[in-house]
Amino acid sequence: MSKSKSASTSPFFRTPRLRWAFLGFWILYFIWFWAHGVFSDQAGDFYIGNANMWGDWALHFMCGSAMAFRSLILKNSPLLYGVHFRYPFAADLISALLIRAGFPFWSSFTVPSFIFSIAAVFALFYFSREIIKDELAAVLGCFIFMLNGGTGIFRFFREVAASRTPFHTLLYPPLRYTHMDELSVYWISIVDSMFIPQRSFAFGFSLALAALLIIYRFKSDPRRPAWRWILVSGLILGLMPVLHTHSFLAVFFILLFWSVDDSIQNRSHFVRERLPYWTALAALVAAIAIPVMKLAHMLEIDNQGFAHRCIGWYAGIDHLNWFVFWWRNWGLTPLAALNGLILLIWKPSGFRNAVIFLPFFFIFALVNLITFQPWPWDNTKLLAWASVGISLLAGYFVAELVRSSAGTAGHNRKRIFFKRAAGAALFVSMIATGTLDDYRILLPSINRYKVYTNEELSLADWFRKNTPIEAVVLTAPYHNNWSFNLTGRQALMTYDGWLWTHGYNYWKVAEDLRTMLTQPTSRALYQKYGVTTVVLGPIEKRDYQPDIALFRRTFQLLKESDNYVIFSATAPPHAAEPPRSAIVDLESPKVPSGNLDLGLVKKIYRGRNFYGKPLVVEEEVADFDFWFNDNQKKPFESPCSITWEGYIQAPDPGIYIFSLESDDGSWLFIDDVLVVENGGTHGARKVSSRARLSPGLHRVLLKYFDDGGGAILRWTWTLPKQQAERRVGLENLFYEK
Length: 737
Known about the structure:
Blueprint: H1 3-6, H2 17-36, E1 38-40, E2 46-48, H3 51-69, H4 90-100, H5 107-132, H6 135-147, H7 152-162, H8 166-171, H9 190-195, H10 199-220, H11 227-238, H12 240-243, H13 245-265, H14 270-295, E3 308-309, H15 314-317, H16 322-330, H17 333-346, H18 350-355, H19 358-367, E4 370-371, H20 380-402, H21 413-441, E5 449-452, H22 454-466, E6 472-474, H23 482-485, E7 490-491, H24 496-501, H25 507-518, H26 523-529, E8 533-536, H27 538-544, H28 548-554, E9 556-560, E10 565-568, E11 583-586, E12 596-598, E13 600-606, E14 616-621, E15 626-628, E16 640-650, E17 654-663, E18 666-670, E19 673-678, E20 685-693, E21 696-706, E22 711-718, E23 726-727, E24 733-736
Parallel strand pairs: 6-7, 6-8, 11-20
Antiparallel strand pairs: 1-2, 2-5, 3-4, 8-10, 9-10, 12-24, 13-14, 13-16, 15-22, 16-21, 16-24, 17-20, 17-22, 18-19, 18-21, 22-23
Helix pairs in contact: 2-5, 3-4, 4-5, 5-6, 5-10, 6-20, 6-21, 10-11, 10-13, 11-14, 13-14, 13-19, 17-20, 19-20, 20-21
């Protein structure tokens, strides 16, 4: 299988153009996806553009924020209170370091993931080309690996034919055709299931392939200077348990086969010349990996759901014929791979080259015999490695069918034509379903999955600033819970789906969590787990029906928003306040540190919670007197929130009456004290309050949000010893330059 033998007479196949066509395609694909994969809408709600990312990335946000805001080295697992952290955390550690360096939170996850995706594609190609030594076969095999998806394309065509709007169905596929549980299709396009949502897979897969590439070159050419590269590959593989555990296991099987093959192929001088390198590699990997796994507590397993017999994998679980199952999930790819293996064996030195692919078939067989985690689907993380070798052999078979070297004199041209047509048809059949699903990923209109509302993002920001980093939070264990996803704070318990698949014994904690949410007077349980903060929102109210009034009588209220209440579990409720005087005393004027100019600083935010980067920042304004009856007349898009901030000049000492009329909510703060509260979603409503001011400058903050429909705001005051109510004018307002 020499490079010259596999070359085609077409110039396209003898130049790097074929290689860069493959690499360029995926570079553009991932640039497009990661540029649109996470976004916010006009209301300021945060969305993710992929269903599997919606399910997985909340976990990555949680781990990354814990390392960013709490500690880079986590002794306690962010997933469950009181247990060790055991998770391949390296990808999220990179994001945590970026956050600590001042990188934007979302970009700290998307930018590394884009790099991981591209690195995985490059590593896949160069590894494939090295072991198959055929550029055309490598490119075709890599495309099959990235796009293989079974036979769901036939269902898609049936749905297009049956649709009343076939053109729309053709452009906007209604389903994911590589994932149809009702038909026992679980494979899922590798791009959709691994490259995009599984940050640890993309990171670990790319580095593992790079290490295997180094080792294969040493194995196939003993003249290469080995020790330096043994050190590099050993270091990579030694750290692999915290990069991607399944890749570590897959590489172990691959190298086990390769080392045995090397001992057979070079048996005359293996002990003297080859064994020292293999021994050094194994010793180096073990010397790094074993301490790493111990320090990361990856050898601790609380339940018995790992590594159990499961004959046929999902075919056995669903009681489906094994051949039918793999036909639906992988289509013709396994058959094409077997044909490619046969062709490879028939080549000169073909059997030796074919042995390289045996570990990939071994991993495939192992996946069909043993389930390595409680959730059977997680076997796909190993199956992806089997797919590397199987797809490459399928690509080799297609390359042999379509290459033009058969077109020498004396051959039947019709036979050549039909071979090429069969090769092209086979290739298209193997990638059609995966291509359809990967195309579907890029359609924003059908890939909008809300993760956090603007209110939740605002609360997460407040939570980070107003709760201690050692806080332990009692809240409902759903996967996209902002209180432990985005704040770095320890939750008593997080999503049970994560806990189950990672082998945690959490059932007793789940029982205690329910007791604490329904019986806040159970002080012993709160003290047992060290709970400091309670977050009650829509999910808690739906699933646990907590007595909010009892929580108010038991704990101190820290924060309340439209949908959430936050309590301190370590402080009693505030004593009942006597009726507050109708007059707020603000006697001390404030002295600005800089030069002043007339007007206030206005900031407009997306959504109603004053969160995120302002869309608009203007100075020298006093435009807080408006009355718009509908959305078309408003100079800003709803929903939005607006602040005006600066100083107000009190001309005389005495009692001032401040009034806010608004639709929707508005608040007036003077010297950081809430003077007028007219919050909530409502129609036009006026609220007034009195404040005693000394003459001079006082800090002022006016807040307003519009939730849609009419938009009204009017700020007025009545000066001491005067009866006339008038608009607060520009001449009394100042901001620091």
